[in-house]
Amino acid sequence: MSGGVDSSVAAYLLSKSGSQLVGVSMQVWDYKKNSAENSRATCCSPADFCDARRVAASLNIPYYVVDFEATFEREVIQRFVDTYKSGQTPNPCIDCNSKVKFRELRERAKGFGCSHVATGHYARIRQSADGYHLLRGRDLEKDQSYFLYTCRQEELGETLFPVGDFTKPEIRELAREAGLVTADKPESQDICFVAGSTHDFVATIGGRRPRGSFITKDGTKVGEHDGIHRFTVGQRRGLNLGGHAEPLYVVDIDPAQDRVIVGPKEDLKRESFPVREMHLVSPGLRRRVAEMRSPFEFDAVVQVRSRHRGVKAIVRVLSETEATVLWRDDWAAVSPGQAAVMYDLENEELLAGGRISR
Amino acid sequence: MTVDCDANATYAPDESLQGVIVRAISLSGNPSSLHRGGQRAKAALEEARAAVREFLGAEAHDQVVFTSGASEANNTVIASCSAERPVGRIISTLIEHPCVLEPLKALQSAGRDVVFVAPDASGEVPVDGVVRALTPDTALVSVMAANNETGVINRVGEIARAVREIAPRARIHTDAAQLPGKVPVSFWELGADYMTVSGHKLGAPAGVGALVIRDGVSLKPLILGGPQEEKLRGGTENVLGIVSFGAVASVVGKDLAKRIGAMRGARDAFEALMAERCPTWAFNGRDRSRLPNTSSVFIPGVRADDLVVALDLEGILISAGAACSSGKPEPSHVLLAMGQDAQRVKSTVRISFRADIEPKDVERLVDVLCTVAGRMNRSA
Q1: Would you call A96 a catalytic residue per the annotation?
Q2: For residue A123, what are the β-bridge partners?
Q3: Residue B207: pLDDT above 90?
Q4: Domain B15-254 in this protein, CATH class
Q5: Which of B302, B306, B307, B378 is the best substitution to test chain A (most A C-beta atoms within 10 A)?
Q6: Domain boundaries, chain B
Q7: What's the average model confidence in pLDDT over A180-204?
């Protein structure tokens, strides 16, 4: 329970269904210690825990703040900082889900005697004879399945997403109906542990990267920048490179020489890109990969950023953990470090996902 | 039914006391008012003061000043002594409650000579450790009477005698918040100039405590603003809290020996059962004189904070070290000061029994602890 409306309503829905519940807020980061600003805007801040506590009390369920700081720092913060510093773009929510929420929380909840972990994610789980299927949330605007591709079968079997069958307005309506104090709380959009700018956070925690140059594909220097951790492939804003005929984008980052390669939009276009650290989710695909003798291909809708709708592509599976995505008619700019998540052609069931590689 | 094994955090009022507390609500007058409503409250206040004084083994001329709790009493003594003697060493220990440690650390950062004596491996403050820290100009020595986490009782009387000999001008303070109700308290035998006690550790509601001051010893008030408490603590008295404190002191004082026997019986039975069923578990300070109700248990391989949650879900209240106000448990400074490693500290829980614990509840505590710890070791 983050103290937001989604996990509040998740608890409310389960309490109505008669489940025996234990409310847990995850203490992942010490905001007082790590932020000069006394921000109340993020999720999981002490003020948010007060809201979670009040919701739990109104639902008459026990509630605890459980400490996950050590794991979060190691698995999420450190990776976040290291990824930026290596010139890639991290996705901390995915690491948090795979290493903290659906691993450590689940293990510790078992210690509390709990059989399942429920969260306020907008996603759905369906069970069939061959296993568990992970589907996009019914509200496609809010769908969070993209962040959940690392869920293993046994994790899906012990996970509940009560809000996944509802739209956000319906969730707010349920919260109001139940009189939950979080009913009209604003959305938290940004990275939960970063109160100010991401670049400053990376520099504070991980130390500054040296200044470097902006160059074009042919090696011409067109400007200077304050460190590669400030950039993401596909980025256009904040480059401060004026006087060019067409807008310039970051098309690549060279960490070895601290260079940011810029170019026009078409320079972002690639025929294909590699995916590593792949997780297979759908039972059918898992079976097919387990039985594979040589690489095979399948059609999928591939989503390459959290707020991307996905485009049709061919996925060539090379091994259990490696694939290549080949764009077909349409394409999207990809940022190394971010996740590529593959859905079925209805763009509903999540089949697999992995990290975009160089 | 909830089984409360967390009496050192707070001692929930016995049912018999709840009536006293409800009746005290009708004492609505301000004790400083001249009219009968005020005088009735004032009389009740003085009756409570006499009861607390007697219960704590203080003499008729020793002063009992009611405060908002032990934290205020400790802060008052430290502020008073450091103001009255602006120069000279202050000696305390590493195992004090934060309401002693923090004001002393603040003085230290402001340049004051403050020495914190380390406990031994069992958690007791060694008398010779305090003696070695003493200088002729020492202004204050503050040593807690019994530790809230381990229950280990310090030899405050012996320390006080040594201090009088080496630094006769030094003031001696003891934070005795955990003593009352668990051992017979004799302010005289402790030999201190000031003694802090807490109401809610005895069974009164939180929000009341007392500072006992030896006859003839001065004190500068921390809270200025009124003539209350003989000008030693400004502010309208917490009549409800103070009257409850007095009432609980009388009640507990009447059958103290029996209550101590019940606590000791439960604690010793618990430790004997545990040692039999889980021989790898270890008890802190077991080789020392301890509060009769307290057991600090190291349970290898479990997270103490998770164990507290799991036991709460089973209706059993315990704690991981001291009661913690934030959601985030800090590793116990007491166990760390005893030289234990962080891993062991994070796997240590505190069991502290009430006098009305039933033997069957002790057995249930043992069963649930073993079951839950086993489950946690498997899922980790």
Answers
A1: yes
A2: A136
A3: yes
A4: alpha beta
A5: B306
A6: 3-12+255-379, 15-254
A7: 85
Domain B3-12+255-379 in CATH 3.90.1150.10? The answer is yes
- The interface residues of chain A toward chain B in range 199-258, judged by CB-CB distance below 8 A, are none
CB atoms within 10 A of CB A50: 13
- Indicate the range of A242-246, B33-37, B252-256, B354-358 predicted with least confidence: A242-246
CB-nearest to B375 from A22, A25, A111 is A111
Looking at residue B146, the DSSP 8-state letter turns out to be: B
Sketch out chain A's domains with CATH numbers. Answer: 5-120+161-177 (3.40.50.620), 209-267 (2.30.30.280), 270-356 (2.40.30.10)
Tokens of B258: 């029996």
- Residues above pLDDT 90, as percent of chain A: 78
Phi/psi at A340 (5° precision): -110, 120
List of long-range contacts for B19-28, beta carbons under 8 Å, 24+ apart: B20/B243, B20/B244, B20/B247, B20/B248, B21/B205, B21/B240, B21/B244, B21/B247, B24/B239, B24/B240, B24/B243, B24/B244, B24/B247, B25/B240, B27/B239, B27/B240, B27/B243
**Residues 6 or more apart whose Cβ sits within 8 Å of residue A138:** A122, A124, A164, A165, A166, A167
B313 with A67: Cβ contact below 8 A: no
pLDDT computed for residue A41 by the predictor:
45
User: What percent of chain B stands above pLDDT 90?
Assistant: 91
Asked if the Cβ–Cβ distance from A111 to B372 is below 8 Å, we say: yes
Q: Please give the average per-residue pLDDT across B347-362, as a whole number.
A: 96
Measured between alpha carbons, how far is B180 from B183 in angstroms, rounded to an integer? 6
Instruction: Provide the number of CB pairs (under 8 Å) joining chain A to chain B.
Output: 47
ipTM of the complex: 0.86
Q: State the nearest Cα–Cα gap between B333 and chain A, in angstroms.
A: 18
